[in-house]
Amino acid sequence: MNNKNILIGTPVKNGAKFLDNFLNKLNNLSYPKENISLCFIENDSEDDTWSILNEIISKKIPIHEYKDITILKLDLGFLLKHECRYQIEHYQQRINNLVILRNFIVNNYLKNNDYLWWLDIDVENFQENSIEYLLSLNKDIVMPLYTHNTYGYHDCASYTNLNGKVTRLYELTHIFPNEEIIELERCECAAFINRKVFDSGLRYLFVDDEYTDLCGNVIPCKLEGVSFSENAKKLGFNIYGCIKFEIRHCDC
C-alpha cells in the first residue's frame, strides 16, 4: 500500500502548558510515522515554550521514526499572552502574523507531502485514527468539528447555505445525524488540505475587512482560514465539514 505523506503544521506561541499532552496525542496517531512530517514554528512566546518543545521532542518523541520533524523559532516581534489572543484589539496583528507563519510552513515544508493538516497547540484530544479517517473522505479541504469543554462548539466561521439560510457546521450535526460530511461554503484554518489546493498558487492573505462572524462578534479583519477557504471555493475546490469527526480544545 502506498501511503500518502502528511505534514502536520503547528504555529506555536505561549503553548508551554499544552505541549506535553499535544505531543503525546501526536505520537499516538495510528498512521505510519514514516509518512508523517511535523513542523513547529515557535514565535514570540513569553513562557518556556521553546525550551520545553525542544526538550519533549528530544526525550519523548521517537524522532527517527518520523519522515521529518522541524522545530524552528521565527519571532515576528509581537508579544501577546495566550489568554488575550481573542481580544478584538489584537486581531489584526495576530491574523497578519498567522498569515506569515502559515505561508512560511506551506512554502518551505509542504514539499514531498500530499496533505497538510493544521493542528493548534491547545487541542486537547483527537482520534488516534484521525489521519486515516480524513484521508478516506478524499476531499480537497476537510474541516473537523471543533468542540470546547466550556463553550461547546468552537466555530464561528464554518457554514453552508441550507435552503437559503446560513447554517453553522455544528448545527448540521443535528439536521443530518446520519451523514458523515456536508459541503461548506467556507471554513476556518484548522483544516485538512490536499496539496493540490496549494499547488494552484493559493496562499493565506491578510484581508483588512471588518465583518460580523456567525456568533455575532464584529471582527476587524477576516480570519486567515476564512479568506483562504473563500478563495479556494472560487477556484473550484470543494470544502467539506465533518459531522462525525470531532477535535476538542482545552479550556484556556
Description:
By secondary structure, this protein is of the alpha/beta class. The protein has helices spanning 16-27, 49-60, 91-109, 130-137, 169-175, 195-199, 224-234, and strands at 6-12, 36-42, 68-73, 115-118, 123-125, 141-148, 152-153, 159-162, 165-168, 181-183, 192-194, 211-212, 218-219, 239-249. The chain has a single domain (6-249), classed as Alpha-Beta Complex (Spore Coat Polysaccharide Biosynthesis Protein SpsA, Chain A). The protein contains seven helices and 14 strands. Strands 1, 2, 3, 4, 5, 6, 7, 10, 11 and 14 form a ten-stranded mixed sheet that branches. Strands 8-9 form a two-stranded antiparallel ribbon. A two-stranded antiparallel sheet has the order 12-13. It is globular and about 55 Å long.
H/E element sequence? EHEHEHEEHEEEEHEEHEEHE
Largest sheet: 10 strands, mixed
Determine the CATH topology. Answer: Spore Coat Polysaccharide Biosynthesis Protein SpsA, Chain A
CATH class: Alpha Beta
Name the shape in a single word.
globular
Q: Count up the domains.
A: 1
CATH architecture label: Alpha-Beta Complex
Counting DSSP H or I runs of 4 or more residues, the number of helices is 7
Poorly predicted regions: none
Radius of gyration: 17 Å
Give the rounded overall mean pLDDT.
92
Q: Give the end-to-end Cα distance, rounded to a whole number of Å.
A: 41 Å
Beta content comes to 25-35%
Classify the secondary structure makeup into a structural class: alpha/beta
Portion in helices: 25-40%
Strand tally, please?
Answer: 14
* CATH superfamily heading: Spore Coat Polysaccharide Biosynthesis Protein SpsA, Chain A
